[in-house]
Amino acid sequence: MELRQLEYYVAVVQHGSILQAASALNLSQPPLSVAMKQLEQELGTPLFFRGARRIQLTAAGERFYQRALDILSLTEDTRREITGYAQGQGGVLRLGAVSSSAASLLYPRLFRFAARHPKMRYQIDEGNTFEQLNKLAAGLIEAAIVRTPFYDASVHVLELDADPLAVVVRREADPFPDDQVAIRQLKDQPLVYYRRFAALLAEECEKEGFTPSPLCLNDDARTSIQWAQAGLGMAIVPYSSAGFIDLTQMSVKPIACDRLVTKTCLIWSKKRPLSAATALFLDFLRQDSKVDV
């Protein structure tokens, strides 16, 4: 499979027809039609539903379109990076980040790094921890800022910050009189939290004689916070997520339990060498955080 095939395919999808794509690519329609049929034969599956005036993608076609975009983007980033080094213009830092840490924990450091390296370019890819692990394994990013708990023996880990879990609830519905919330006070409350925190929360609650019954399990701090903002439940999220919250209407109180802590980490693959840009960022984080692996 060649990059030109991917470029042709993306053009067909984005223009909605082979005729319009051929015009944009300065090709005649028949060779482009043949190229699309050859691509389907190579992949062993149809990518389009035939017969529609505007093309429609099969499920395989949708998946292949996303992968083609990723590959073309990575190729362009690599070209820019190598060209930039040759011209003394810096590189491209391809970094993943979990949404709950991006604003409060990642960006202050990243902005300090950017100030030191004004010729560096950036691609930030947000998503939850498991999404970042998958992108790292696929080579779509070189490093990612993620949260514990996670278990993956294929990555190096640089721990950056410890962040206690906190309860977020509307101020008018806040039943907790103190600045911190005890585990026992969570009993019978409509809790909303990450699936990854479920086992740890259950373990700590069971020590206090009860089993939590979550109103909603999800994979993103913003989702949990939205449920709390709607007055439907109490979100349990990393304390630093308060950066997303209107504190005039919402109460944010850490949970008084030393074990209910999540750590922010930089991870990178053990299987792939780092680019100069990512290695430079890693060295910066080690110095900035005064920590080491």
UniProtKB/TrEMBL annotation:
The keyword Cytoplasm does not apply. Gene3D superfamilies: 3.40.190.290, Winged helix-like DNA-binding domain superfamily/Winged helix DNA-binding domain (1.10.10.10). GO terms for molecular function: DNA binding; DNA-binding transcription factor activity. Residues 1-58 form the HTH lysR-type domain. Keywords: DNA-binding, Transcription, Transcription regulation. Pfam families: HTH_1, LysR_substrate. It comes from the Bacteria. InterPro entries: HTH-type_LysR_regulators (IPR050950), LysR_HTH_N (IPR000847), LysR_subst-bd (IPR005119), WH-like_DNA-bd_sf (IPR036388), WH_DNA-bd_sf (IPR036390). The keyword DNA-binding applies. One of its GO terms (cellular component) is cytosol. Belongs to the LysR transcriptional regulatory family. PANTHER family: HTH-TYPE TRANSCRIPTIONAL REGULATOR YBHD (PTHR30419). This is LysR family transcriptional regulator. It comes from Holdemania filiformis.
